[in-house]
Amino acid sequence: MNQQKLPNATAVLVLGIVSIVGCCCYGVLGLIAGIIGLVLYKKDNALYQSNPTLYSITITLIQEEFFVLLD
């Protein structure tokens, strides 16, 4: 079976990193990037949970570890 990447995986990682840097430097801009990243993460997580064998697990584990750091 051919596994594929989650559609917003890269965007979620980039927005998460931008939100951490943005919160330290700019405040509100980092918060906005973090909220957008969390919304995209929830969509990807729901998509992954509906059919876990279709998507690769590597990106999902990175996302979960990253958002644990944000909590």
Structure write-up:
The structure is a single chain. The protein is mainly alpha-helical and 71 residues long. It has one domain (9-70). 76% of the residues lie in helices and 0% in strands. It has 3 helices and no strands. It has helices at residues 9-25, 28-50, 57-70. Helix 1 (9-25) packs antiparallel against helix 2 (28-50) and helix 1 runs parallel beside helix 3. The relative contact order is 0.21. The mean pLDDT is 84.
Low-confidence sequence ranges: none
Task: Return Rg in Å.
Answer: 13 Å
Q: Overall pLDDT, averaged?
A: 84
Helix fraction bin:
over 70%
Note the run of SSEs as H and E: HHH
Biggest sheet layout: none
Strand content is under 5%
Kindly, what is the distance between the CA atoms of the first and last residues, rounded to a whole number of angstroms? 34 Å
The coarse silhouette is: elongated
Total number of domains: 1
| Number of discrete helical segments | 3
Q: Could you tell me the number of beta strands?
A: 0
The class by helix and strand makeup works out as: mainly alpha
Give a concise summary.
Helix content is 76%, strand content 0%.
Give short descriptive properties of this protein.
71 residues; mainly alpha; 76% helix
What is the fold's blueprint, element by element?
Elements: H1 9-25, H2 28-50, H3 57-70
